[in-house]
């Protein structure tokens, strides 16, 4: 294929990805009446600041609670989940213990299981532990990610030399110290990659909070905006609020990709080959 054809396909793919964001931005500038009088990608009378004020004032500022909850779920869950995945992947790749291959096979099988299929078993477990409708009912299940373990294992296999680990053990370092002081810094790009995937997955998580939570003050942004969007047919004034809230929900993801872009690309490239 010629370069012009490749560039054309890439341009189409880029437009396919960017146009929804452009629509989201232009729609966030409109009031209720502008949706019927302007085109999809036309700016309204610039009601963005008014929409933002209404968004944060609606229902006594519950949207701020949703923002805080999403940051807690995604921020803490991404950091702790990436650390757990890195430790599991390192153990499978570099430690010799009975059942290591079987454990890795189970991990690969876990990648194939959709998260929605686990929602009901997780709800039953949370019910037994009496943590339904609490922060922990959503937060604890988010700390496990089979794909993150697989990715960390692949990166540890390629980036952490066995000779360095042997030298650390000869010098008297235990396994935990070897992992945190030797292996983890070498796995940093891979860990950042897992962290980014964790953050995006948790930030966009919807079904698990829908099953676990009934208290609006514990909702993440995804579930809260969904509750508002279900009222749009009866109360059209919610339409600008949902669109403006959705625009704000995209901002942390864009910032995360921009900040971690270099580490993300190097982590993917280095962890895939020896």
TrEMBL record:
CDD domains tied to this protein: TM_PBP2
Pfam families linked to this entry: BPD_transp_1
InterPro entries: MetI-like (IPR000515), MetI-like_sf (IPR035906)
Keywords assigned by UniProt, alphabetized: Cell membrane, Membrane, Transmembrane, Transmembrane helix, Transport
Membrane-spanning ranges: 71-93, 102-123, 135-152, 191-213, 238-260
Record membrane topology: Multi-pass membrane protein
Lineage: superkingdom: Bacteria
ABC transmembrane type-1 domain: residues covered: 67-259
UniProt keyword GTP-binding present: no
Record's subcellular location: Cell membrane
Key word Electron transport present: no
Family per similarity comment: Belongs to the binding-protein-dependent transport system permease family.
Protein name per its UniProtKB record: Carbohydrate ABC transporter permease
